[in-house]
Design a protein that fits this description.
This protein is 19% helix and 32% strand. It is α/β, with parallel strands linked by helices.
Length: 339
């Protein structure tokens, strides 16, 4: 198959490096700062206008596109694949230039471990060293299922070829049913990455990680990364984790074993559902995690570096609280949207 060329804004041309690459992935693999977040067709960050040529759409009526977008020949970079040489108009930004070159590798399932009642850590081994920034994610393809999913790494870069993903089981989810029930050590997956902009930065400020559900993985990676590079020598790490039930928030072990920094690590779990079971078994905070962030950090909230990941209602509420209500500077807020 002939690989297509993509001309962007009339002055930048990139070539697809892999035959199944989307417009977005082809641009990122070439070092182009093409905006994106979820990589799944929902957020609309990677919109572009198709000026000429043909593309294949991978999703019918993606939620990230409006009817007006369709009328104006607007497409999503993450959900279209060039079929010919194409010319497009897109809003590029240097902040999206990959900090680590993306690539595809094969990895074999090795083992899994229980984190909570519905989250497990899955370990895959590859022949290549593992390179990414703490907080980033990868696209995992399951050849036997014919599907691809985005999951965040929970470990750190390493030379052992070890990839770790903390994944929450989704009721009826094809990928998670396979992972939790059927995967074995003969199974190979394809890992494509890294992606994501909510990665750890060196900062003079104390660090806040906020997670809910499967947003745990990237926040654990960031906490471990901050420890690894010495950011917690003097800085504090506030780790907020929200769930519906007391059973959901038993995750302190994920950060309590960071070397020598226990005095600087502050764990703030919160349960949102006021049920008889929770009232009987939970003596901690009740409410929503973004409300607990405001309560615990108080008037000093503008002085922290924020990282967060979790369900869209959580990330939206926290983003609005930080940016609109408390006017935390935008460059101190780091998150990727997932759906």
């Amino acid at each position: 198959m002939t690989l297509s060329k993509i001309n962007i804004n009339g002055d930048k041309t990139v070539s697809s490096q892999l035959s199944d690459d989307t417009v977005l992935l082809a641009a990122l693999r070439s070092g182009v700062g093409f905006p994106y977040e979820c990589n799944a067709g929902a957020c609309g960050s990677c919109k572009y206008e198709l000026l000429c040529g043909d593309v294949e759409s991978l999703m019918d009526s993606p939620p990230g596109l409006t009817a007006r977008d369709v009328r104006k020949n607007i497409y999503l970079g993450c959900q279209t694949r060039p079929q010919t040489d194409i010319s497009i108009k897109a809003r590029l930004s240097d902040e999206y230039i990959p900090v680590v070159t993306t690539k595809k590798i094969q990895a074999r399932f090795f083992d899994s471990f229980e984190i909570t009642h519905d989250i497990r850590e899955f370990v895959f081994l590859s022949d290549d060293k593992v390179t990414f920034e703490p907080g980033q994610y990868a696209l995992i393809s399951f050849p036997s299922l014919g599907i691809k999913r985005a999951y965040s790494m929970s470990n750190l870069p390493n030379g052992k070829g070890e990839w770790r993903f903390q994944i929450r089981r989704v009721a009826g989810g094809v990928a998670t049913d396979f992972l939790f029930e059927k995967i074995n050590q003969s199974d190979l997956v394809e890992i494509d990455g890294p992606y994501g902009m909510a990665y750890l930065r060196e900062t003079p400020r104390d660090i806040v990680c906020v997670a809910g559900g499967s947003g745990l993985a990237p926040m654990v990676s960031i906490a471990r990364g901050a420890s690894e590079i010495g950011l917690l020598n003097e800085k504090n790490l506030h780790f907020f984790y929200g769930g519906r039930s007391f059973r959901d928030v038993q995750v302190y072990s994920q950060i309590s074993n960071l070397p020598e920094y226990k005095k600087n690590i502050h764990f703030h779990p919160v349960v949102s559902e006021i049920s008889e079971e929770n009232l009987k078994n939970w003596t901690g905070d009740f409410g929503f995690v973004h409300e607990l962030v405001e309560k615990k950090l108080g008037d000093e909230i503008k002085n922290y570096e924020f990282y967060f990941a979790g369900p869209p209602p959580m990330t939206k509420s926290l983003q609005e609280a930080l940016m609109l209500k408390h006017q935390v500077p935008f460059d101190q807020i780091h998150f990727d949207r997932f759906f």
